[in-house]
Design a protein that fits this description.
It is a single chain. By secondary structure, this protein is mostly helical. Helices cover about 70% and strands about 0% of the residues. About 30% of the residues are buried.
Length: about 180
Amino acid sequence: MVLEIMQKQVELRGQDSFVSSIPLITKHLTHNDSLVRQATIHLLTAMQISHAQILDGLKSIMLNDDPYISTEAALALLKLNPDETDGMLPFLIDQLNGNDFIIQSLVLENIELTGRYALKLLPYITELLNEEGCEWDASHAYLKITGDDAPARKIIGLWKESENEIIRGTAYELESEINKLLNSF
């Protein structure tokens, strides 16, 4: 809760007013509660300050924490310091090649953070187009990178034929989302 309040203050007062608080905030990256570490990552990302202490703390989390929080730290690093994207690719590839569709989806949902390096991830994303659990996120990332909506349309077509009313409804919502994305190109 304290971190949420601080995040609101950053939004209201601006990031420069919090530079002196960086040591106080980054110490929470080593807290024994994973939810505190996760909230700290979110706060530091919202602050949008590329301070060395922040970047070092996030790198430490990325290398030493549980896979989900490590992935969140890696994505925060990409947001705060896009110049390090090339060096982050092996980590992102490992996450995409892993067996946890939640982590895979987290990377796929944030594929735009990789910028021009997204093309290097395309072979790994293509592999996930048929993986249950993250196929939609993979097709969406594929669309964002290539402009090709065929994989997403294929999934929507399959989902429209489902006997499950919720899945059919989701297919129509996703189709609308794709059309909006294509119109933004």
